[in-house]
Amino acid sequence: MTTHTSDRKTAAAPTIAPTVAQGIDWADVAGQWFKAYRAGFDTLLAVSNAVLAGVERVQMTQLEADVETQTRNRTAALAVGDCRDVQGLLTLQSTLATAYMESAMRYGTTFAQLAQQTNAEIVKLFTTRYEEWNRFMRGALPAGVAPEAMQQPFAMAFEAARASQEAMMKSIASLTSMAGQAQKRAA
Hints:
This protein is mainly α. Helix content is about 85%, strand content about 0%.
């Protein structure tokens, strides 16, 4: 009995597990998970950019306040030289105190407005991107798999993350304690 070359190739070829099992297209599910995680990553980047933009606005406000304060201080120093009596100094002090208080209130108001603006941008990002992420996640959870079956791995992952964080905090506390004891011995 002769074996054909094509028969040997077929017999020797490894069996590839089907991607569709129990009516679930696992390749499609994996693609949906990838899209969901990518959407989450894109959202994280967008939120990070919004936070950084907010920080830049706050820094610019701080720089403007610093320049204004420096200018006001220079003007006040020159005005002190022009005072001829105590009454002139008291008037100057009162004027400066009022101006500084107004500047502080304006700065506080501006800072609050910037914080509200940044928060509104972040909320808008989360709101618009959540729907996209949610759509991908619905596709990533196969219809044939019960939600309870998906919850156990997630619960285990969260528990492992919590335990890892506790271990890290204990380690940091231990290092802090050891550093304190080393300082006491050195003193």
